[in-house]
TrEMBL record:
Domain HTH iclR-type span(s) in chain numbering: 20-81
Domain (IclR-ED): residue spans on this chain: 82-254
Protein source organism: Brevibacterium salitolerans
Name the record gives this protein: Allantoin degradation transcriptional regulator AllR
Organism classification: Bacteria, Bacillati, Actinomycetota, Actinomycetes, Micrococcales
Region feature (Disordered): 1-21
Length: 255
């Protein structure tokens, strides 16, 4: 299931960040509008965000006054033009300007590749280049996936201190799988890549490597039918991913 994309945050320091309720609620309203396709009535926003109507009215009025939300003639609300500038900046920082790099990797691997950032204790896909094959994988940009059951998540976990890994798994992973995931993270540290073996979707494998130097901890992955992404090609695919990961790191450093 697709989820509304969130902005990448700085790497965690092991301490849970403080949250401001009014900011949380404002973002909930914006995300509710985005999930509704960009426009909705205040009642629909309140239901989607799980907030009282008076609170939603006050937040919408503030957002309208700042230009981040517009009120339409039929009294519904839509996302405003001031978000376009923020989105453009976020796109440059996250993945859109890296698209040619991903496209070149697809030409070499002939499979779909994805770039994901570590955000809000999960992984968020920020860019993708789709395979040209008739049977290909597709992941919606903005989709969030769990750290413990995704290749990109396990690749990022392999770069974090063990205490931080245990903290993240304790917060999100079912107790029955934590030791298994820890073992996979250790294996990923040794071999330099992580595997999602049909954990997100039956018949689909994902191989991922960490990417350093970005605005948040990141991973680059290739997704393909399990019949094509077989163990015999893992090392070859990983080498291609690592080369592109170094290219991304260099491009971030130059920006």
């Amino acid at each position: 299931m697709s989820q509304t994309p969130r902005t990448p945050e700085p790497p965690r320091t092991g301490r849970r960040p403080q949250r401001v309720q009014s900011v949380d609620r404002t973002l909930d309203v914006l995300e509710a509008l985005a999930a509704a396709g960009g426009a909705a009535r205040s009642k629909e926003v309140a239901e989607a965000a799980g907030l009282p109507m008076p609170t939603v009215h006050r937040l919408l009025a503030t957002l309208v006054s700042r230009g981040y939300v517009l009120q339409l003639p039929d009294r519904s609300y839509c996302l405003g033009s001031r978000l376009v500038r923020l989105g453009a900046v976020a796109a440059r920082q996250s993945g859109v300007h890296l698209q040619p790099v991903l496209d070149r990797l697809v030409d070499r691997l002939e499979e779909t590749v994805n770039l994901a950032f570590f955000t809000q204790e999960a992984m968020t896909y920020v860019a993708q280049s789709a395979s040209h094959r008739s049977m290909r994988m597709f992941t919606e940009v903005g989709r969030r996936v769990a750290m413990h059951s995704s290749g990109v998540g396990k690749a990022v976990l392999s770069t974090l201190p063990q205490e931080e890994v245990r903290h993240l798994l304790a917060a999100a992973a079912p107790p029955a799988v934590r030791e298994t995931v820890l073992a996979e993270v250790l294996r990923a540290r040794r071999c330099g890549y992580a595997i999602d073996d049909e954990e997100q979707e039956a018949g689909v494998r994902c191989l991922a490597v960490p990417v350093l130097g970005g605005p948040a901890p990141a991973a680059l992955s290739v997704s393909a039918p399990s019949s094509r992404l077989v163990p015999e090609v893992y090392e070859r695919v990983a080498n291609q991913l690592r080369a592109t990961a170094r290219e991304l790191t260099a491009q971030w450093a130059a920006d």
